[in-house]
## 1
Amino acid sequence: MYIYINEASHHLGDEVEIRGWLYNKRSSGKLHFLILRDGTGLMQAVVSKKEVSEEAFETSGNLTQECSLIVTGKVSEEPRSPGGYELHVTDVKLVGKSEDYPITPKEHGIEFLLDHRHLWLRSKRQHAILKVRAETAAAMREYLNSRGFVNLDTPIFTPNACEGTSDLFETEYFGGSAYLAQSGQLYSEAAIMSFGKVYCFGPTFRSEKSKTRRHLTEFWMLEPEVAWLDLDGCMDLEEDFIVEVVARVLDRCAEELKVLGRDTSVLEKVQKPFPRITYDRAAEILKEKGADFTYGTDFGGADETILGESFDRPVFIHHWPADIKAFYMKRDPNDYSKALAVDLLASEGHGELIGGSQREDDLDELLKRLKEHDLPQKYFEWYLDLRRYGSVPHSGFGLGFERTVGWICGTPHIRETILFPRLMHRLEP
Ligand code: 4AD
Ligand code: MG
C-alpha cells in the first residue's frame, strides 16, 4: 500500500510503500540507514542485509543524495527517527538516479544557492518557509472569506501608476505602453461600490533599484478594501486580521517554525491592542534614540528597525505628512498637512508590513491631488467617476505578503519566502 510519510502513524505494523527521494544515508556493515523525504516529512528506513535480497541491499548501498526511489517495508515506532516512525525495509527500487547533487550538506554561498533555487527548494529550511507561506495565505483568505469579503482579481497590465511613477515596470503594448501593476487598490475601490468589502491577492511589480533584504521586484500583496470604513476602523481590521492569522500559523506550523529555530514567544506576544502612534510621535522617538532622520521624510530601513524594536508587538504609525504619501489618500480635515495614512511596522527589524489609508472620497480634492502629483487626469476619469456617482468614505490596506512571511519565519531576507525570487540582479532560474 502506497502511503505518505505523514500517514505512518495510522499504519503501525503494516507493510507499506514510500515513494520519495533520498535525503541522507549512512551505512554500517550489514545495515544501511536511509533518510527518505516525500514532501510530507522525513522518515528513516533501515535496510538489513539479512532481510532483503542481495540485489536490494546492493542497490541501497549505491543510492546517492536526492535520487528518487520506492521503498517497501514495515512501519514501527522509533523515537530516534525523524517523525517518530521507522521503516523496516523489505525492498528498494531506484527510480531516478542523482549523480553529484550540487547542494551538499556543507555550507554554500547565497549566490550559489539562489542559482540552484530549483534544487535548494528541497532543503529542510526552504521547505519549512514555503509551508509557512502556504499556511499564511490560507489563513488570510479564510479570515476574509469568513467575514463576507469578496475575493476579486485586479488586472496586472495597467495604463497608469498607483504608487508613484519612479518604480514602474513599462512594457510594450501593441505599439503603445502598459505598466505592470504596483497595486490592485484602485480597481478594488471600484469593486467595493458594487460589493461593499472585497480583497485582491496577487503579484505586484516594482522596479525597485534598492538592493535591500526587504525588496523584491515581483512580490505578492493582499489588499482588502472596505466601503464605509474610516482610518480607525482600518487599524482595527488590520490588528484583528494580523492577530488571528499569526495565531493560526503558530498553531498549524509549529513543526516548521521549530525547523526554522523561530523564537515563537515573539509571535505569541502578537495580541491586541497594537500601539498606535502618530508620525510626529515616531519622529520624536527617532530623535530620542539618536537616529539620523529628517522630519517630513519617509522612514528609512534603519528608522523602521529602531521604531519596530521600540515595541514588543507590531506598531501603527498614522497621520503622515501628506506631501510624501500617495495621491489617493484623504487629508485630515483637522490638519490639512497630514494624510489619513497608516503603516504597520513589524518587530525585530522586519520593517513595514502594511501600508493603508482612508481614501479621498471628494471629487474636487482628488482632482487637486492628481494635479499636485502630476498625474494625467484622462487615465483617471474612471477612478474619478467613483467620486461622481455615489461616493462613500472608504479605506483599505495592502499587506506585503513576503515581508509578513519573513517576519513570521524570522528570516532576515525575504528572498527565501517566495518560490523563485525576482530581484534587481536576478531573473533566473
Ligand atoms: O505601502 P505600499 O506601497 O501600499 C500600496 O501599494 C497601497 N496601494 C496598498 C493599499 O492600500 N491597498 O505597499 C504595501 C506593502 C508594503 O507595506 C510592503 O510590505 C510591501 O507592500 N512592499 C514590498 N514588498 C516586497 N518588495 C517590495 N519591493 C515592496 N514594496 C512594497
Ligand atoms: Mg508604504
## 2
Amino acid sequence: MVKVAIITGSSRGIGREIAKTLARKGITVVANYNKSEEAAKELKQELEEEGIKIDIIKADVSKREDAKKLVEFTLNKYGKVDILINNAGISEYKLFTDETDEDWNKIINTNLYSAFAMSQEVIPNMVHNKSGCIINMSSAWGVVGGSLEVIYSVSKAGLDGLTKALAKELGPSNIRVNSIAPGMIYTKMNEKFSKEELKEIEEEIPLGKIGKPSDIAKCIEWLLEDEYTTGQVISINGGWIIT
Ligand code: NAP
C-alpha cells in the first residue's frame, strides 16, 4: 500500500528536500506552504517533470483551522495519513530583553503549537489504522540552548518534550514519534549570517562543514524504514554539538 505523508513547511529548505525525497520513493506527498506560493508551485512542477504528482496546500499551521483543513484535505483525498512531518518553523535572532509578547506568540505558535495541532488532527486516523510515524523538526538549540535565540530554543525544547511524552502514549497504537535536531544546515533560515560568520561556524564543526537539507532527508528516509525507534531526539550536526 502506498504511504501518505504530510510535510508542513515544504515550500523551501529542509521541508522541500524531504518532500522531493519521499515523493521520489513513491510516497504520496501532501506538501504544505504558507507564504511561498511560487516556490511551492516550482516544487510541484519540478516533480511533475519527473512524472511524479504531489499536492501543494496553503495552510498557516500555526492556526488550528488551517491545520484541520490540511489534514481534512488529505483524508478526503487519500483516506489516511501514515506519516506526519512537523517541519514548519521560523527563527529569530534577538537579545532576550528585546523580545516581545508578539515574538513569543509567533515563534511558539509556528514551531510548537503547529505540531500539537497537526498531531491532534492526524492521530485519530493513525490510531484507527494502528500505524503511523510522526517526526518533529527540532534543533540543536532545543537540546543545548542558543544565545540570542531563546524563544526559538524554548519552542524546540518543547517539541522534544512533545516527542517523548507522545511516543509513550502512542507506542501501544504502533505509532512512532521522534525528533530530528539539526545543527546548522544551509537554507534561507541562515541567511542572517555573513560569509565570515558561516566560515567561523564551519571551523567549529568537527566534520568541517555546514550540513545540507539532504543530510536531514536521509535521516527521515531511515526513520521511515525503521520499526523500533521512538521517543528519541536524533542529532545531526557534523559533531558540532555532542551531549
Ligand atoms: P526555511 O528555509 O526558512 O523554511 C521554512 C519553511 O517553513 C518554509 O517552507 C515556510 O513556508 C514554512 N513555514 C514557516 N511558517 C509557516 C507556517 N505558519 N505555516 C506553514 N509553513 C510555514 O527553514 P529551514 O532551514 O528549511 O527550516 C525547516 C525546519 O528545520 C524548521 O523547523 C527549523 O527550525 C528547523 N531547523 C533548521 C536548521 C537550519 O540550520 N536550517 C537548524 C535546526 C533546525 P512559507 O515560506 O511558504 O511560509
